């Protein structure tokens, strides 16, 4: 056992405090602390019957009493005096404070400490604050910060001369998450185009493009679509900064906070539009480029000002969301289009364009349950900013429209299977995803967005769309035929091979006499007969 230092024995008031409080309040050597913890009897100098009074519940609190104590001794004096007072009242009459080794200045603290309410324990305080944050996040009108707001906060924290500050601010103008979603819908439609099946049906069509050609087209489509989205989103922010400042969802945008000037935003919008449209024109076809230019015009110059005029703006915005899948479909169709069949009418209104219109219809219908739920959560802010939205103009119709277009997802998904774009597995996956969306939309309509139904529909729409798009890519028609044959050993159709070789033999037979007649013409009659 380590002997106690005499200096500790001469300080009985410090024996009434736990070791953590002692270490925090006064610098003590480590060997003194070990001796202080070695023996409770020698440390307190009291009987076992009085030991429970030493282990007071305030010793294990947050020790906020130390900060509020105005006495000379601080926490040590207040705790020591309160313990001395409780012991003296239980066993003996009151004595002079100087007789117990306590300062007279600790008397006010001793009178206040027993009457103070017990402090909240740290872990309970953390739990309470966490529950309050969760409850506030579930309340209406509270949405997580979008990518633009996060990038704006990151940019504002950097030095004004930093290049990263400018890059983050300009990237915030593009609405990265929305742009990524649009690129996802475009490339998904591009990947679902059934090139192989069309080549099988029409042997006169051009051969399937090589891997390098299709990959290059995919890169042009992705980059051009993203830059076009950047231009449209930048113009949208540039036209309404004073209205964005009135809403918590948009008040952190870079133009509102002054991170980017209006002149800089305009030059950025023009530059991204010219670059994006040029990439689409060079890498895809003029029809895809025209669709992208029309989308920029609709979003920036029709949808944006219409938000303050009429609720029809939601339908215009849904058209803007339905064009990108059609762009991806037309870009894929342009790779196998023959001369004379590559006009915009053939690309958009032929029999082979039905799949692209169905994918565009899915995105058009998806906009309503998604946006109607989102707008309901911040309907008061939309009203204060002067935006004409169904969420506050006609709340009952807002729920009906969301439910109506959620139900429309079923026939549109079924149509993709009907036109042989996807396989049977897509019916199962799409039915589950669409059923989930319809269920949340029905609850949203039934409760008029209350009881958390608006938030439930919002998150259901966030997950339902990627399930449909990825499911369509995975279950693309003819994608797993080769894998199925390799696994189960089904031979390929011999009839197709026989017809293929027969056509080659016929072509060889007709080509051989023609070759002999041109190289060795015997007479006019033989040449005419061969021809």
Automatic annotation (TrEMBL):
Name the coenzymes or cofactors required.
Answer: Mg(2+)
Stored InterPro entries:
Protohaem_IX_farnesylTrfase, Protohaem_IX_farnesylTrfase_mt, UbiA_prenyltransferase, UbiA_prenylTrfase_CS, UbiA_sf
**A GO CC term assigned to this protein in UniProt:** mitochondrial membrane
Q: Name one GO molecular function term.
A: protoheme IX farnesyltransferase activity
Instruction: Give the top-rank taxon of the lineage listed in the UniProt record for this protein.
Output: Eukaryota
Its family remark reads: Belongs to the ubiA prenyltransferase family.
Q: Where are the annotated segments for Disordered?
A: 77-141, 503-531
Question: Where is it localised?
Answer: Mitochondrion membrane
Any one Pfam family match given in the protein's UniProt record, by short name: UbiA
Q: Which organism is it from?
A: Penicillium bovifimosum
Predominant place of localization: mitochondrion
Q: Looking at the keywords, is Cytoplasm present?
A: no
Q: How does it sit in the membrane?
A: Multi-pass membrane protein
Explain the purpose of this protein. Converts protoheme IX and farnesyl diphosphate to heme O.
Q: Know the name of this protein?
A: Protoheme IX farnesyltransferase, mitochondrial
Asked whether the keyword tRNA processing is assigned, the reply is no
């Amino acid at each position: 056992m380590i002997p106690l230092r005499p200096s500790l024995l001469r300080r009985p008031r410090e024996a009434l405090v736990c070791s953590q409080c002692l270490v925090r309040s006064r610098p003590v050597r480590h060997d003194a602390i070990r001796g202080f913890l070695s023996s409770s009897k020698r440390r307190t100098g009291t009987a076992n019957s009085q030991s429970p009074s030493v282990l007071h519940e305030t010793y294990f609190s947050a020790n906020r009493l130390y900060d509020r104590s105005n006495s000379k001794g601080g926490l040590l004096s207040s705790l020591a005096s309160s313990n001395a007072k409780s012991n003296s009242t239980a066993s003996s009459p009151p004595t002079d404070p100087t007789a117990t080794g306590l300062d007279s200045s600790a008397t006010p603290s001793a009178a206040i400490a027993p009457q103070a309410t017990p402090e909240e324990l740290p872990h309970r305080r953390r739990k309470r604050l966490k529950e309050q944050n969760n409850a506030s996040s579930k309340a209406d009108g509270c949405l997580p910060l979008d990518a633009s707001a996060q990038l704006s906060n990151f940019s504002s924290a950097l030095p004004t001369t930093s290049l990263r500050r400018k890059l983050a601010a300009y990237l915030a103008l593009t609405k990265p998450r929305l742009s990524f979603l649009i690129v996802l819908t475009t490339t998904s439609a591009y990947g679902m185009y059934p090139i192989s099946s069309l080549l099988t049906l029409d042997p006169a069509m051009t051969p399937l493009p090589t891997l390098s050609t299709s990959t290059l087209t995919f890169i042009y489509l992705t980059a051009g679509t993203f830059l076009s989205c950047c231009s449209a989103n930048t113009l949208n922010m540039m036209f309404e900064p004073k209205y964005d400042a009135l809403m918590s969802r948009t008040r952190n945008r870079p133009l509102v906070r002054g991170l980017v000037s209006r002149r800089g935003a305009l030059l950025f919008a023009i530059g991204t539009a010219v670059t994006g449209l040029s990439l689409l024109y060079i890498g895809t076809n003029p029809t895809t480029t025209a669709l992208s230019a029309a989308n920029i015009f609709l979003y920036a110059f029709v949808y944006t000002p219409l938000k303050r005029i009429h609720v029809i703006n939601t339908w215009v915005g849904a058209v803007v969301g339905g064009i990108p899948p059609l762009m991806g479909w037309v870009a894929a169709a342009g790779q196998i289009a023959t001369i004379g069949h590559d006009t915009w009418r053939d690309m958009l209104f032929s029999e082979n364009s039905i799949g692209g219109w169905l994918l565009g219809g899915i995105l058009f219908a998806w906009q309503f349950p998604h946006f109607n739920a989102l707008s309901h959560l911040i309907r008061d802010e939309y009203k204060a900013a002067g935006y004409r939205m169904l969420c506050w103009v006609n709340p009952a119709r807002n729920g009906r429209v969301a439910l109506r277009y959620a139900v429309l997802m079923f026939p549109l998904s079924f149509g993709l299977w009907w036109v042989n774009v996807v396989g049977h597995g897509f019916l199962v996956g799409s039915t589950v995803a669409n059923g989930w969306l319809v269920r949340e939309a029905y609850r949203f309509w039934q409760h008029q967005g209350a009881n958390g139904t608006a938030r439930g529909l919002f998150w259901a729409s966030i997950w339902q769309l990627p399930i449909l798009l990825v499911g369509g890519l995975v279950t693309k028609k003819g994608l797993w035929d080769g894998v199925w044959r390799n696994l189960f050993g089904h031979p390929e159709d011999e009839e197709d091979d026989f017809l293929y070789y027969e056509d080659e033999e016929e072509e060889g037979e007709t080509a051989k006499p023609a070759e002999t007649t041109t190289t060795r013409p015997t007479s006019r009659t033989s040449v005419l007969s061969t021809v």
